[in-house]
From TrEMBL:
Chain segments carrying region Disordered: 439-476
Name this protein carries in UniProt: Glycosyltransferase RgtA/B/C/D-like domain-containing protein
Keyword Methyltransferase attributed: no
Taxonomic lineage: Bacteria, Bacillati, Actinomycetota, Actinomycetes, Pseudonocardiales
Keyword Transferase set for record: no
Keyword vocabulary terms for this entry: Membrane, Transmembrane, Transmembrane helix
Domain of life of the organism encoding this protein: Bacteria
Signal peptide: none
Spans traversing the lipid bilayer: 105-121, 128-145, 181-209, 216-238, 250-269, 276-295, 301-323, 335-355
Organism: Actinokineospora spheciospongiae
């Protein structure tokens, strides 16, 4: 039987409208995913979260050094994935700050998570506007932004876990086996990447079990258990759970956006009352319960729960507003309709004025790179071949700047070499695990101060050394063979000149008149109270070569770090940290 022409036209129009709706939905989800990534990239330069510096070191080592660090066994697959992204995109080169480069991968993971939240909402049977609201709230909520911004294994694992739930969530009892097998693979990868995602296996198991195909559930469960056991192991699982506990506490996360924190808890509890939301609610409530265990993987559990919890809150709101909230055979949504609408209105009134300011503050927070950059430059110029102990973030910056990793020891890696200098950053100072010594250079002030300390050297006290330098400097300033500007003479008389400079300069004045133009300061050393160890001697013609050879020919403790002939004269620089006792004859009387 042939259909009338107008029937064909109606069918064609319907197909066209359906295609337009699909394109509109695709454009909407891609726009929301892009918004998610942009917001997180804008905040990529904010200060590191607790434990994030160690994660940065693992990712950098996997990218640039092609190795896993000593403690990378906690989450090796996470570091390999993040390192692969930074290597393929050259993120560490494109970003000035190493942490911002590593966080770029987390922004991409958050965008993928946004797409998966949309797909999961549609697979669950929720309306498109519910899916859009969930993704939009997750994209702009300061709480979710802070959670997804951090360089953490859980942020790498969340897309894998959500992808598994998308594949398993189906209304069909019988279907092809391939989606279920791929879901098991994705869930195994998620658990190996971050063991705390094992809690979401409860949601996956519920989805498979409710189909009523017991043999299928047993096969998939056995495959999942075997994959996790082979890929992870008990010791690595415990280490990974311990790693997930590093970071802000649940109370600190909730304080970022208390309205959303309350909403997601209510949505997760309400989801248990709906057969539609119950599988996801079980997993989210399990993660929230794990987060509250004292000493447990609280920070990591909340990181995984953030996106699906927002989806649960949006889904619960839709079911309450559309009269589809059922408890067993009884419908209770009519009683919830009014309170839900009022609650949504109150929440909107509370968060709309707050979120823009919170997001602007997150994007504006920046760590001052000046102190660490100055210390890095000082080490490169003055201690290029000396072992140095640093924290994880500084280790990345130093190796990234070209320093030999063999000469740069992470404080977290174990016992440092006994002769190693210490780059004392705020993070290392807070740990108090590395004993300091004599402070040789200081960069910055206040809590951001970075110091360079040399190992505690036995010998004379600081007061005795200063007195000896003062007596020797005064004798040199009174010498008729030395010509110097008043500021140079003042430095000599106040004991602010390195004993090696004083000794070698005294030897030079014994053979010829000498004009000292300046005693240039080395950046960072005046703030540490160190004596000047640079000397600019004015010479001309053949005399300049003779003076340069004189300084370059010194041996032992008096050998300069560099001797440079400039247009102004001969610039001599000695290594940092003069040995004690070089000016014994000039000791002040007791």
């Amino acid at each position: 039987m042939r259909l009338p022409p107008h029937t064909w036209r109606l069918a064609a129009d319907e197909r066209t409208r359906a295609a337009e709706r699909h394109l509109l939905a695709l454009a909407a989800v891609l726009a929301l995913a892009a918004l998610t990534a942009v917001v997180r990239l804008a905040a990529g330069g904010s200060p590191a979260q607790a434990g994030e510096a160690g994660h940065l070191a693992h990712v950098f080592a996997a990218d640039r050094l092609d190795l896993l660090l000593d403690s990378a066994a906690d989450a090796p697959l996470a570091w390999l994935q993040a390192g692969a992204y930074t290597a393929l995109t050259d993120a560490f080169t494109r970003h000035t700050a190493a942490l911002a480069g590593a966080r770029e991968g987390m922004a991409v993971a958050a965008a993928v998570t946004a797409v998966l939240v949309w797909l999961l909402a549609r697979r669950m049977g929720l309306r498109w506007w519910t899916a859009a609201a969930a993704v939009g709230v997750a994209a702009l909520s300061p709480l979710v932004v802070e959670v997804q911004l951090g360089l953490r294994p859980e942020n790498v694992a969340t897309p894998w876990a959500l992808g598994a739930l998308v594949l398993l969530w189906t209304p069909h009892r019988h279907r092809r086996l391939e989606p279920d097998l791929w879901a098991v693979v994705l869930l195994v990868v998620a658990v190996i990447t971050a063991p705390v995602t094992l809690v979401l296996a409860a949601s996956a198991g519920w989805l498979v079990w409710r189909r009523g195909r017991r043999r299928l559930a047993q096969v998939l469960g056995a495959g999942f258990a075997l994959g996790v056991a082979v890929g992870l192991g008990a010791s690595s699982a415990l280490s990974g759970l311990h790693l997930a506990g590093r970071g802000p506490t649940p109370a600190q996360w909730a304080a970022v956006d208390p309205v959303l924190a309350v909403a997601v808890v209510l949505g997760a509890v309400g989801g248990l009352c709906s057969a539609l939301l119950r599988p996801l609610a079980i997993g989210v409530l399990g993660l929230l319960a794990v987060a509250l265990v004292p000493g447990g993987p609280g920070s990591g559990a909340l990181t995984v729960a953030a996106a699906p919890a927002v989806l649960l809150a949006a889904g619960a709101a839709e079911l309450a507003l559309t009269h589809r909230f059922r408890i067993g055979r009884h419908t209770g949504s009519r009683l919830l309709l009014g309170p839900t609408a009022v609650g949504l209105l109150v929440a909107a009134v509370l968060v709309v004025p707050v979120w823009p300011g919170a997001l602007d503050a997150a994007a504006a927070r920046r760590t001052d790179p000046g102190p660490l950059a100055g210390a890095t430059r000082w080490l490169r110029e003055n201690l290029p071949a000396t072992p140095v102990v640093v924290d994880d973030a500084a280790w990345v910056d130093l190796v990234r700047a070209g320093r030999d990793p063999a000469l740069t020891t992470r404080a977290a890696a174990g016992e440092p070499p006994p002769d190693a200098w210490v780059l004392l950053t705020p993070a290392l100072r807070a740990r108090g695990a590395v004993p300091g010594g004599e402070t040789v250079a200081v960069f910055g002030t206040g809590p951001d101060r970075v110091e360079v300390d040399r190992p505690g050297a036995p010998g004379r006290g600081a007061a005795g050394e200063t007195g000896a330098r003062r007596h020797a400097g005064a004798a040199l300033a009174d010498s008729p063979r030395l010509t110097a500007r008043p500021d140079v003479t003042a430095l000599l008389r106040t004991g602010r000149v390195d004993p090696r400079v004083l000794t070698v300069l005294a030897g030079l004045t014994s053979s010829r008149p000498v004009r000292v133009t300046a005693l240039p300061a080395v950046p960072g050393e005046d703030a540490a109270g160190q004596p000047r160890r640079q000397l600019l001697v004015t010479t001309a013609g053949e005399q300049a070569d003779q003076v340069a050879r004189y300084f370059a020919g010194q041996r032992g403790a008096y050998r300069p770090l560099s001797v440079t002939s400039t247009a102004e004269g001969v610039l001599v620089r000695y290594p940092p940290g003069a040995p004690a006792g070089l000016l014994t004859p000039f000791d002040p009387p007791p």
